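haha ok so turns out i had the wrong file open the whole time. this is the CORRECT one, sorry everyone. sequence first:
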Amino acid sequence: MEPGSTPRTTVKRLPEKAVRDADAVSTILAAGLVAHVAVVEDDQPFVIPVAYAPYGDEILLHGSSASRAFRLLAAGAPTCVTITLLDGLVLARSAFESSMNYRSVIILGNARELTGDEKLAAAEALTEHLLPGRWAEIRPPSAQEMKATSIVSMPLAECSVKISAGGPDDVPEDLLDPVYSRVWAGVVPILEYFGSAEPDDMSGDTPEPPYLTEWSRR
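then structure:
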């Protein structure tokens, strides 16, 4: 199902920014690291940030098995998952026209709890999404650690994509005004990358893995 193809995922605010290309979903999910997940308990909404990973035509969400939110997700409670990549600040000559450049995916539906070998494969996928190449170096999780971890999978079947890009769209009056026309305007890019790694006391002469310097947000 292509993005925005259901009544619930039709973009109504600034529909010109809606993207119907399914490849855009994959690109955004591959570039992000954190999802915000919504659940409702006793009529109270909660939104929490969690690690995620794209997984075929699904998205994996990872948290504690003792978490209230993940207990609800594992039980099949309806949810909304949002991934947002902030690409830049758009500075116009007025407060109203100033904005942000971003890429976002909103996913609606119900998650399913993963168990057994499927859960272990999902744990590897989550690790590899955050730091490609890390799984081969580290100790895999123990049975007790897997028990303490909840991993749920959610289909991407019902989602929407919204992308905002480009420079400021000033009103003509501001461009002609003798004062405001001289205000600096443009785009301030926001980049995401890893800073210098800080080894712990046990690392000693262990070489820094290459994926720490090679990663940057796509």
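The first helix runs from residue 22 to 31.
again sry for the mixup
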